[in-house]
Design a protein that fits this description.
4-stranded antiparallel β-sheet, elongated, alpha+beta, single chain, 4-stranded mixed β-sheet
Length: 168
Protein backbone atom coordinates (compact mmCIF):
# COMPACT_ATOMS: atom_id res chain seq x y z
CA UNK A 1 0.00 0.00 0.00
CA UNK A 2 1.43 3.39 -1.00
CA UNK A 3 1.90 6.13 1.57
CA UNK A 4 -0.89 8.69 1.60
CA UNK A 5 -0.27 12.24 2.83
CA UNK A 6 -2.80 15.07 2.46
CA UNK A 7 -2.81 18.33 4.38
CA UNK A 8 -5.35 21.14 4.57
CA UNK A 9 -5.47 24.35 6.63
CA UNK A 10 -8.68 26.31 7.17
CA UNK A 11 -9.12 29.57 9.02
CA UNK A 12 -11.92 29.61 11.57
CA UNK A 13 -14.30 32.53 11.31
CA UNK A 14 -14.20 34.95 14.23
CA UNK A 15 -16.77 33.99 16.84
CA UNK A 16 -18.92 36.40 18.80
CA UNK A 17 -16.81 35.78 21.90
CA UNK A 18 -13.61 36.50 19.98
CA UNK A 19 -15.10 39.71 18.63
CA UNK A 20 -16.08 40.77 22.17
CA UNK A 21 -12.52 40.11 23.38
CA UNK A 22 -11.08 42.21 20.56
CA UNK A 23 -13.49 45.09 21.20
CA UNK A 24 -12.73 44.96 24.93
CA UNK A 25 -8.99 45.09 24.23
CA UNK A 26 -9.40 48.13 21.98
CA UNK A 27 -11.55 49.77 24.65
CA UNK A 28 -8.80 49.24 27.25
CA UNK A 29 -6.22 50.84 24.94
CA UNK A 30 -8.48 53.86 24.44
CA UNK A 31 -8.95 54.19 28.22
CA UNK A 32 -5.18 54.13 28.67
CA UNK A 33 -4.74 56.88 26.07
CA UNK A 34 -7.48 59.00 27.63
CA UNK A 35 -5.81 58.71 31.05
CA UNK A 36 -2.59 60.34 29.77
CA UNK A 37 -3.51 63.92 30.77
CA UNK A 38 -5.14 62.88 34.07
CA UNK A 39 -2.57 60.61 35.74
CA UNK A 40 1.19 60.78 36.08
CA UNK A 41 2.96 60.34 32.77
CA UNK A 42 5.11 57.30 33.66
CA UNK A 43 2.21 55.37 35.20
CA UNK A 44 -0.11 56.11 32.28
CA UNK A 45 2.48 55.19 29.66
CA UNK A 46 3.17 51.91 31.46
CA UNK A 47 -0.53 51.06 31.77
CA UNK A 48 -1.17 52.03 28.14
CA UNK A 49 1.76 49.89 26.96
CA UNK A 50 0.37 46.97 28.97
CA UNK A 51 -3.08 47.47 27.42
CA UNK A 52 -1.56 47.61 23.92
CA UNK A 53 0.27 44.33 24.59
CA UNK A 54 -2.95 42.74 25.88
CA UNK A 55 -4.78 43.95 22.76
CA UNK A 56 -2.06 42.38 20.60
CA UNK A 57 -2.45 39.07 22.46
CA UNK A 58 -6.24 39.27 22.10
CA UNK A 59 -5.95 39.65 18.33
CA UNK A 60 -3.35 36.89 18.02
CA UNK A 61 -5.16 34.32 20.15
CA UNK A 62 -8.59 34.90 18.62
CA UNK A 63 -7.17 34.10 15.17
CA UNK A 64 -7.55 30.31 14.92
CA UNK A 65 -6.82 27.87 12.09
CA UNK A 66 -7.38 24.13 11.91
CA UNK A 67 -4.84 21.89 10.19
CA UNK A 68 -6.10 18.54 8.94
CA UNK A 69 -3.38 16.01 8.10
CA UNK A 70 -4.17 12.57 6.73
CA UNK A 71 -1.17 10.23 6.87
CA UNK A 72 -1.67 6.56 6.04
CA UNK A 73 -5.21 6.41 7.37
CA UNK A 74 -4.68 8.56 10.46
CA UNK A 75 -6.34 11.98 10.57
CA UNK A 76 -4.56 14.48 12.82
CA UNK A 77 -6.29 17.77 13.61
CA UNK A 78 -4.09 20.53 15.07
CA UNK A 79 -5.06 24.01 16.24
CA UNK A 80 -2.90 26.94 15.10
CA UNK A 81 -3.18 30.19 17.06
CA UNK A 82 -2.11 33.46 15.48
CA UNK A 83 -0.46 31.64 12.54
CA UNK A 84 2.49 30.68 14.70
CA UNK A 85 1.63 28.72 17.84
CA UNK A 86 0.62 25.14 17.20
CA UNK A 87 -1.36 23.19 19.76
CA UNK A 88 -1.10 19.47 19.08
CA UNK A 89 -4.53 18.07 18.51
CA UNK A 90 -6.08 14.67 18.33
CA UNK A 91 -5.28 11.78 16.00
CA UNK A 92 -8.09 9.59 14.71
CA UNK A 93 -7.77 6.29 12.87
CA UNK A 94 -9.93 6.45 9.74
CA UNK A 95 -9.66 2.67 9.37
CA UNK A 96 -11.81 2.37 12.54
CA UNK A 97 -14.49 4.76 11.26
CA UNK A 98 -17.93 3.39 10.54
CA UNK A 99 -19.18 6.34 8.44
CA UNK A 100 -17.86 9.47 6.71
CA UNK A 101 -20.69 11.56 5.25
CA UNK A 102 -22.03 15.12 5.01
CA UNK A 103 -22.72 16.20 8.60
CA UNK A 104 -26.37 17.02 8.00
CA UNK A 105 -27.27 13.97 5.95
CA UNK A 106 -29.92 11.52 7.14
CA UNK A 107 -27.32 8.80 7.80
CA UNK A 108 -25.36 11.00 10.21
CA UNK A 109 -28.37 12.61 11.89
CA UNK A 110 -29.89 9.21 12.64
CA UNK A 111 -26.72 8.12 14.48
CA UNK A 112 -25.65 11.40 16.09
CA UNK A 113 -28.06 11.65 19.02
CA UNK A 114 -25.99 9.85 21.67
CA UNK A 115 -22.47 10.47 20.37
CA UNK A 116 -19.63 12.48 21.86
CA UNK A 117 -19.10 15.36 19.42
CA UNK A 118 -15.91 17.19 18.42
CA UNK A 119 -16.26 20.25 16.15
CA UNK A 120 -13.30 21.28 13.98
CA UNK A 121 -15.19 23.45 11.50
CA UNK A 122 -14.41 27.00 10.44
CA UNK A 123 -17.91 28.35 9.90
CA UNK A 124 -21.47 27.93 11.04
CA UNK A 125 -22.81 27.38 7.53
CA UNK A 126 -23.59 23.77 6.79
CA UNK A 127 -22.25 23.69 3.24
CA UNK A 128 -19.11 21.58 3.36
CA UNK A 129 -19.31 20.02 6.82
CA UNK A 130 -18.55 16.32 6.96
CA UNK A 131 -18.85 13.99 9.92
CA UNK A 132 -16.71 11.01 10.80
CA UNK A 133 -18.25 8.49 13.17
CA UNK A 134 -15.73 6.29 14.97
CA UNK A 135 -17.05 3.57 17.24
CA UNK A 136 -13.85 2.68 19.12
CA UNK A 137 -11.79 5.63 20.43
CA UNK A 138 -9.55 5.53 23.51
CA UNK A 139 -10.78 7.72 26.35
CA UNK A 140 -14.29 8.18 24.92
CA UNK A 141 -17.38 6.39 26.17
CA UNK A 142 -19.37 5.15 23.23
CA UNK A 143 -18.86 6.43 19.71
CA UNK A 144 -17.34 9.73 18.62
CA UNK A 145 -18.56 12.13 15.92
CA UNK A 146 -15.95 14.47 14.42
CA UNK A 147 -17.23 17.39 12.34
CA UNK A 148 -14.78 19.05 9.96
CA UNK A 149 -14.54 20.72 6.52
CA UNK A 150 -12.46 18.61 4.12
CA UNK A 151 -11.71 19.58 0.54
CA UNK A 152 -12.04 17.17 -2.39
CA UNK A 153 -8.40 16.11 -2.15
CA UNK A 154 -8.87 15.09 1.50
CA UNK A 155 -12.09 13.20 0.72
CA UNK A 156 -10.39 11.38 -2.16
CA UNK A 157 -7.53 10.35 0.13
CA UNK A 158 -10.01 9.07 2.73
CA UNK A 159 -11.82 7.21 -0.04
CA UNK A 160 -8.55 5.45 -0.88
CA UNK A 161 -8.24 4.32 2.75
CA UNK A 162 -11.86 3.16 3.30
CA UNK A 163 -13.97 3.40 0.12
CA UNK A 164 -16.99 1.57 1.56
CA UNK A 165 -17.75 4.13 4.34
CA UNK A 166 -17.49 7.40 2.37
CA UNK A 167 -20.82 8.94 1.38
CA UNK A 168 -20.80 12.09 -0.72
Amino acid sequence: MADVFVEQIIKRKLSLGGLAIRIGAIFLVLIGILLLPVLKLILTITVTALFIYLAYLAFVYTSVEWEYSLVNGELTIDKILGKRKRKPGETYDIRKASLIAPAYSEEVLSKSEYLTKMDYTATNNKGNHYAIIIDDVEGVKGALMITFEPDEKMLDAMYNVRPNIIKR
